Amino acid sequence: MNVKYKRLLLLGWLAVGFAGAGSALAQVQVERVAAGLEHPWAVAFLPAQRFLVTERAGRLRVVGADGHIGAPVTGLPAIAAGGQGGLLDVVTDSAFASNRTVYVCFSEPEAGGSGNSTAVLRATLSGDATRLENVRVIFSQRPKVASRAHFGCRIVEALDGTLFVTLGDRFSRKEDAQKLDNHLGKVVRIQKDGAVPADNPFVGRAGALPEIWSYGHRNGQGATLGPDGRVWMHEHGPQGGDEINVPQAGGNYGWPVVTYGENYGGGKIGDGLTVKAGMAQPLHYWVPSIAPSGMAFLTSDRYGPAWKGSLFVGSLKFGYLDRLDLKDGKVVAEHKLLEDGRARIRDVRQGPDGLLYVLTDESDGKLLRLRPQ
Question: Annotated catalytic, 335?
Fold first, then answer.
């Protein structure tokens, strides 16, 4: 059975009041579903209340409803684990119940070289959930770079069945985020077999890679499908300037020409611009940086009306879960949850049961369930 945390979380690990006038105080209990995960990065949901969890070191695990962590799932390709790289995102196909297809984002080593890049594989999870079969890499970021940072690596299946993938600028190649002849600092859109959708914005444009959907991004470690049917994402700024964006076809999101952050240790980046014609402004930004990771909209009513429609983002730097109130597509308020836990929040997802699940990025990482009372 699931082991309850001895302390209750949310504003003193106790209770959170909903903001609506006249609403009763609602308590949220945090349950530990599993512990002992090594720097878990993403969680997906399987039938029978089981979970598929990635560990950054290069292992894919099935976690049972009772919290039991299974042996590593076999069949993964070589993974460049180190620094921020490793086995990162995992999502199940929208038709998983019939096709058992999963998509995994990881840092792929360069054959015969020292470089690596973000890649996405498609595979079938065996009936007993012990191995990946029919494994095929359907996307590989170009070029490969000798770097251990800024992989991005979040996957979202859109309503039309295409896949959106966030790709980091690899830290040392930030200027390439403004160029269309590479995948660095981009969001790409592909079909489930890796093919390029014919309506991608740069299809047929000379000197541009056709997978690119939007550019001028830094390091997107959170992405989700919004209730509006659009893909939402956030990305790390440098020192300050973490952003939330809703990437549009062909959109330029400014990095590194415009940013609300500054160089590590201080000093402006480039000309120090925050606005420039032709470059989109973020929907929301944080100064100082919270180091965001994981992203989910709450569409269920399990926590009451005040939380329904909220956007949830984990903070690695400050160790809290951020609940953002939205109005007319804009962030109007933020609420820091799980703050007293001080655990690096790596992922947050809404489960099939309508509840929120959180991963903590630690050597003894935990899968947590937020249960209303």
Answer: no
